[in-house]
Design goal:
The complex is a heterotrimer of chains A (about 250), B (about 260) and C (about 250). Chain A has about 250 residues and is an all-alpha fold. Chain A contains eleven helices and no strands. Chain A is globular and about 70 Å long. In chain B, helix 4 crosses helix 5 and helix 7 crosses helix 9. By secondary structure, chain B is α/β, with parallel strands linked by helices. Chain B folds into two domains: about 180 residues, Rossmann fold (3-Layer(aba) Sandwich), CATH 3.40.50; about 70 residues, no CATH class. The radius of gyration of chain B is 18 Å and the shape is globular. Chain C has about 250 residues and is mainly α. Chain C has one domain: Orthogonal Bundle (MetI-like fold). Chain C contains twelve helices and two strands; from the N terminus they run E-E-H-H-H-H-H-H-H-H-H-H-H-H. In chain C, strand 1 and strand 2 form a beta hairpin. The longest helix of chain C is centred in the first third of the chain and has 34 residues. Chain C starts with a strand and ends with a helix. The chains are: A mainly alpha (about 250), B alpha/beta (about 260), C mainly alpha (about 250). Chains in contact: A-B, A-C. Chains A and C meet through helix 1, helix 4, helix 5, helix 8 and helix 9 of A and helix 1, helix 4, helix 5, helix 9 and helix 10 of C.
Chain lengths: ~250, ~260, ~250
């Protein structure tokens, strides 16, 4: 109990230290493009009050949610298929390995140019960035199911379907969800890149607009807000995993 | 102690192995032309140094591996894969980490489509029999190694198989826990009246537990000798472990196996 | 996979995808995807040009520098975090926040602070690559077996000796795995940085190609990038396999 207390205190101290350093560096100032924490917080609060920040976050998060949902479903299904079937593995895995290692971000300008920054294009960007890593993680997860659990299911007369749903999927879920987290992060990276790069919308618009007129506190507030948003989203994914597949972690 | 034949008169064997050979890619001859009978209602140990193919033979009997040649019959039926009349206890327990003790023990029944209330009633009985009452809602990571293997044993008992196949079940359990577990297992063997086939590399364990011991020689795995230790089961465990007959049997098996240990 | 009794290696399926690409391109399904053959032809046109090589040089420089900084800072920090609970507590919240944060949003900050030049690209590479390198080095040094550390102390190793002679080596498999993942992220970082800065290197070329809808040029450039990224990833994979014996010894 006291150890827990101490570690929470340290985490808190770590955050407090960095935030104080930010405030100090901003007041020095290190650069006029580096506003203090308090200035950023005031700007952020004003942007929340006049509704600009919530609106922009809303615009950014809708394609994110749709894209991540599509990528999660398609990616996990593809990953399972590649993990469970040799032929699908042969066709799919090299392609996704290349796509995962490649800087796919480079095709975003083309995509946005061809289809505009509409919802569909943004969703496509999120999917392109998120799917390869989700597929590869799900594939690895299935491949690494402990062999003794597979033998156990076989020995106790589990059918192929039963083995998939009662053994392989729960055993693979930590790595699958790790892939979903990575995919979500990559999706966020892509979505914001698309917003920054071509005709600005959502949070990307706020960032570029305030950057262009040198209103740095507002720009920083927008950036901090999107980082917090993605952190919250990832936390939600964690809880979803525990709720769906990991009853033994609920008590811990 | 007596030395006996590998095969028995028809009808008395629960499991019969005929001409079984196994070759692993390499090629390595893991088993060569094994003929063996396992008497019903008793515990038979497969004993030998590492590399003698004892686990391979057990997995062939379980239907988890397919032999290169030969057949296995269980109660007159030829083995073509795992079946409801056999249940397996794994060396590394093979418990589902995300399932409670209750669900793990009932898992074999769950796979067979037995309704929840029914399978939990059966599981509850065997959780009690292996001495885990009160731990039904715990998860494997909350249990010690010995307790986890008790879960594995209860799961195998719960499917009501005639033949229990145990693959070095106590090798990952510490010595004190193992002794207690061995005593409990003997108790179970006498109560349950099922056929146990038990793989071990511990001579003491084999002598203490078995009605008969099959000694296997390595590379290629062959039946070397079959021994029936005839332990005085009416004695207490501590008395048995000090019995001259017990100690002599252990010693003579060691003399037999010595040549195969590098 | 096997076909008519012959084993076909896995990477061969990439040929299948190349054929599909060519067919889709020939069929003019979308202006985004010209035929693969046309992109390859463009390759011969682009590669000999001066602009390509200068872009290549800038990219390679920024990438190497950024990776070097990430490794030199990330690995020691990660190893120390794995050994010291205090330092771990102080840094871990930030590392785990940034390892999966939308880092593109931070690139404008770097641009605002350091201007539109190579420094920004190098820092973008560090920003993308360093977190996963720290995390994996940390996992590696956390996983060092206690008996190995006790061995070091009982034979009288100083802290510095233990760090240089034991911790770094014992954590090597995880450190290399982290560097490999870091490389993949660094490639993304160097491209995203240049896309956003867009006045130097490949960013400049991309800008020209995309504003003129020169899809074949664009894909030719991408093929080069894809090729290098894949080559590097495969190279690291080979290195990891070489030291695979490590993990088998450690059990």
């Amino acid at each position: 109990m006291s150890r827990d207390y101490r570690s929470t205190a340290l985490t808190f101290a770590s955050f407090a230290f960095v935030l104080c350093a930010w405030e100090f560096a901003g007041r020095l100032p290190v650069s006029n493009a580096f506003p203090s924490l308090s200035a950023t917080a005031v700007a952020g609060w004003e942007m929340i009050r006049d509704g600009r920040l919530p609106t922009a976050l809303g615009i950014t998060i809708v394609p994110m949610l749709i894209g991540v949902t599509i990528s999660a479903i398609a990616g996990v299904l593809l990953g399972l298929a590649t993990g469970l079937n040799r032929k699908v593995e042969w066709v799919g895995i090299p392609l996704f390995l290349v796509l995962q290692a490649a800087p796919l971000a480079a095709i975003i300008p083309m995509l946005v140019l061809a289809y505009g920054v509409g919802l569909a294009a943004k969703v496509a960007v999120v999917c392109i960035m998120a799917v390869p890593v989700i597929v590869l993680n799900s594939y690895k997860a299935v491949q690494h199911t402990p062999p003794s659990l597979l033998q156990m299911s076989h020995a106790f007369l589990g059918s192929r379907l039963q083995t998939i749903f009662k053994v392989i999927l729960p055993a693979a879920s930590p790595v699958i969800f790790a892939g979903l987290r990575l995919g979500t992060a990559a999706g966020f990276v892509g979505a914001i890149l698309a917003e920054l790069l071509i005709s600005p919308t959502g949070i990307g618009d706020l960032i570029t607009y305030h950057q262009s007129i040198a209103e740095y506190p507002q720009m920083y507030a927008a950036i901090v807000s999107v980082i917090i948003l993605s952190a919250l989203f990832l936390e939600f994914l964690d809880r979803l995993e525990v709720a769906l597949f990991r009853p033994e972690r609920r008590t811990a | 102690m007596t030395v006996v034949n590998a095969t028995m008169a028809a009808g008395t064997a629960a499991v019969s192995v005929r001409g079984v050979s196994m070759i692993y890619p390499g090629p390595v001859q893991a088993l060569q032309d094994i003929d063996l009978d396992f008497p019903a209602g008793q515990l038979t140990s497969l004993l030998g140094p590492s590399g003698c193919g004892k686990t391979t033979l057990l997995k062939i009997i379980a239907g988890l591996l397919e032999p290169a040649a030969g057949t296995v019959t269980v109660s007159g039926k030829t083995v073509k894969g795992p079946g409801p009349e056999r249940a397996f206890v794994f060396q590394d327990f093979a418990l589902l980490p995300w399932a409670t003790v209750m669900r793990n023990v009932a898992f074999g029944l769950e796979l067979r489509g037995v309704p929840t209330s029914e399978r939990e009633a059966v599981a509850e009985k065997y959780i009690g029999d292996v001495g885990l009452r009160g731990f039904e809602q715990k998860y494997p990571h909350e249990l010690s190694g010995g307790m986890r293997q008790r879960v594995g044993l209860a799961r195998a008992l719960a499917v009501k198989a005639d033949v229990l196949l145990m693959d070095e079940p106590f090798s990952a359990v510490d010595e004190q826990t193992r002794r207690k577990f061995q005593e409990d297992l003997l108790q179970l063997v006498s109560v349950e009246k099922r056929t146990f086939i038990f793989v071990t590399h511990s001579i003491e364990e084999a002598v203490y537990l078995s009605a008969r011991i099959v000694l296997l020689s390595p590379r290629p795995g062959k039946v070397w000798k079959i021994i029936e230790p005839k332990m005085p089961r009416e004695l207490s465990p501590d008395q048995i472990r000090r019995e001259p007959g017990y100690l002599d049997t252990v010693e003579s098996i060691w003399q037999n196996l010595k040549d195969y240990v590098e | 996979m096997e076909l008519y009794g012959h084993r076909i290696p896995m990477w061969a399926s990439l040929g299948l995808w190349a054929v599909i690409w060519e067919i889709v391109g020939q069929a003019h399904v979308t202006i985004l995807l010209p035929p693969l053959s046309a992109c390859f032809m463009k390759l011969f046109e682009i590669v000999p040009t001066e602009t390509f090589w200068s872009a290549m040089r800038i990219t390679a420089q920024a990438f190497t520098l950024g990776m070097a900084v990430s490794i030199l800072v990330g690995v020691p920090l990660g190893v120390v975090m794995g050994r010291s609970p205090l330092i771990d507590r102080l840094f871990l919240p930030w590392v785990s926040l940034f390892v999966s944060a939308p880092l593109t949003a931070l690139v404008p900050v770097i641009m605002a602070l350091f201007g539109f030049d190579e420094t920004t690209i190098v820092l973008t590479v560090v920003l993308f690559a360093i977190w996963i390198i720290i995390l994996d080095a940390r996992a590696g040094s956390k996983g060092i077996s206690p008996s190995l550390m006790e061995m070091a102390t009982s034979y009288g190793a100083t802290r510095w000796q233990a760090f240089i002679k034991i911790y770094l080596w014992a954590a090597l498999p995880e450190i290399l795995a982290g560097i490999r993942l870091g490389l993949v992220r660094a490639v993304k970082g160097v491209i995203i940085g240049q896309l956003l800065v867009s006045v130097i290197g490949f960013g400049y070329l991309f800008e020209i190609y995309s504003s003129n809808f020169l899809m074949e040029h664009m894909w030719a450039l991408l093929l080069v990038l894809f090729f290098f990224a894949y080559l590097m990833d495969a190279g690291m994979g080979e290195l990891e396999r070489r030291i695979d014996y490590y993990s088998s010894v450690r059990g």
